[in-house]
UniProtKB/TrEMBL annotation, chain A:
Keywords: FAD, Flavoprotein, Oxidoreductase. InterPro entries: CO_DH_flav_C, CO_DH_flav_C_dom_sf, Diverse_Substr_Oxidored, FAD-bd_PCMH, FAD-bd_PCMH-like_sf, FAD-bd_PCMH_sub1, FAD-bd_PCMH_sub2, Mopterin_DH_FAD-bd. It comes from the Bacteria. GO terms for molecular function: FAD binding; oxidoreductase activity. It comes from Pseudooceanicola nitratireducens. Pfam families: FAD_binding_5 (PF00941). This is Carbon-monoxide dehydrogenase medium subunit. Residues 1-166 form the FAD-binding PCMH-type domain. SMART domains: CO_deh_flav_C.
From TrEMBL, chain B:
InterPro entries: 2Fe-2S-bd (IPR002888), 2Fe-2S-bd_dom_sf (IPR036884), 2Fe-2S_ferredoxin-like_sf (IPR036010), 2Fe-2S_ferredoxin-type (IPR001041), Beta-grasp_dom_sf (IPR012675), Diverse_Oxidoreductases (IPR051452). GO terms for molecular function: 2 iron, 2 sulfur cluster binding; metal ion binding; oxidoreductase activity. The keyword Disulfide bond does not apply. Transmembrane segments: none annotated. Residues 1-77 form the 2Fe-2S ferredoxin-type domain. This is Carbon-monoxide dehydrogenase small subunit. The keyword Iron applies. Keywords: 2Fe-2S, Iron, Iron-sulfur, Metal-binding, Oxidoreductase.
């Protein structure tokens, strides 16, 4: 890989200042960024490490909201997000143990890989993405494959998840990469049910609103039996056709609802 | 830049660039070639080491991120008298290696598992080894070795 300048600030303000340089990029766990740099698909002139900023790491729960620091590794969320068990379970299924010790929630959400797990949890929970500059609702944050509402140099400092009454994540794993071939996160709140799908669509994570309406009226796997998922915008590759993924969305949603019971 | 680490209990230092990976630093700067580079794409786990007690793939971490950290590698797994450590001995006893290339990563992953879960089930061992690939496909004997290293009965594992 090409060389770069490495800096490791100890505060968010220092990190934001360091990111003002042209071609500077933030480095969180690096589990996606480092492989892409090795392939020379990415060549920042400067990497600003976020993992030395103590304020960005940790899990806490208060008033029905679970807050996760932006540079918190998946393994920590898996171990400490007990107040939101479905989120802890999702974090414990990402990649493998070594990846979970490095990869972070902020890195995952900033990258917004169309097959990543965390975007489905954030969207299904109606989470708030907190940055150094503002708070962004999950519904406004995800803007398509690898695209988010983040501005250049903006850092995710934390994510706030309203804790649902019941929730479950069903991941149909692509066995080689361990990314979601399709993953569905269902979260039931007092004011309705939210269903978010990852791994399936060419537009990245999305809400299946028809299922949300049906499940809000009747929270049972049978409630979605009459629905169909259009395959027009679904990803089609050697691992699965668009129609296959569209079917997985429905099957996994049913399983997630059943698992909530 | 100058990097200082504690590796297997000894303070070590050397020169690195921003792009220097922890695996490169261990092998080329410190001469600790027990940590293997299998795929260099974060898939195979042969380069697994512990950083501040946590299992990581050293090919997917810049050494600058580990500056000042406490690192454990395969070279630190033997007993102080040079005899094989418990996990290493179990790998030998149960033929848990064929070509041996993946073994450093397997042993480090196993050590990390047994630290958190001293009596893992066969399923838990297989789940924990998801990020470690053995191209000789000797997984059954690796699983047996880890069962033995945890002081458990070694079962007849599936598909034999």
């Amino acid at each position: 890989m090409y060389n770069f300048e490495f800096v490791k600030p100890s505060s968010v303000d220092e990190a934001v200042a360091a990111l003002r340089d042209e071609d500077a990029q933030p480095l969180s766990g690096g589990q996606t960024l480092i492989p892409t740099m090795k392939q020379r698909l990415n060549q920042p002139s400067k990497l600003v490490s976020l993992t030395g900023i103590a304020d960005l790491v940790g899990v806490s729960s208060s008033g029905g909201v679970l807050s996760v620091g932006g540079a918190t590794p998946h393994a920590t969320v898996a171990a400490e997000a007990g107040d939101y068990p479905a989120l802890a379970a999702l974090a414990g299924q990402i990649g493998d143990p070594a990846v979970r010790n490095r990869g972070t929630i902020g890195g995952s959400l900033a990258n917004n890989d169309p097959a990543a797990c965390y975007p489905s949890a954030a969207l299904a929970s109606g989470a708030t993405i907190v940055t150094n500059a503002r708070e962004i609702a999950a519904d406004d944050y995800f803007q398509g494959m690898f695209t988010t509402a983040l501005d250049e140099g903006e850092i995710i400092t934390g994510v706030k998840f309203p804790i649902p009454q019941a929730a479950n994540y069903q991941k149909f794993e692509q066995p080689a990469s361990r990314f979601a071939l399709t993953g569905v996160f269902v979260a039931k709140y007092a004011d309705g049910v939210r269903v978010a799908v990852t791994g399936a669509s060419n537009d990245g994570v999305f809400r299946w609103t028809e299922a949300e309406e049906a499940l809000s009226a009747n929270f049972s796997p049978n409630a979605i039996s009459g629905l169909t998922v259009a395959s027009d915008d679904m990803i089609s590759d050697l691992h699965g056709s668009a129609a296959y993924r569209a079917n997985l969305v429905k099957v996994l949603t049913g399983r997630a609802v059943a698992a909530c019971a | 830049m100058k990097i200082s680490l504690t590796v297997n209990g000894k303070t070590m230092s050397g020169e690195a660039e921003g792009r220097t990976l922890l695996s490169t630093f261990l092998r080329e700067e410190l001469g600790l070639t027990g940590t293997h580079i299998g795929c260099d794409t974060s898939q195979c786990g042969a380069c697994t080491v512990h950083v501040n007690g946590k299992q990581v793939k050293s090919c997917t971490m810049f050494v600058a991120e580990a500056d000042g950290a406490d690192v454990s590698t395969i070279e630190g797994m033997a007993n102080t008298d040079g005899s094989l450590g418990v996990i290493q001995q179990a790998f030998q006893d149960h033929h848990g290696l064929q070509c041996g290339f993946c073994t450093p990563g397997m042993v480090m992953a196993a050590a990390s598992l047994l630290e958190k879960n001293p009596k893992p089930s066969e399923a838990e061992i297989r789940h924990h080894l998801e990020g470690n690939i053995c191209r000789c496909t000797g997984y059954h004997n690796i699983v047996k070795a880890i069962m033995a290293a945890s002081g458990q009965e070694v079962p007849a594992v599936a598909a034999e």
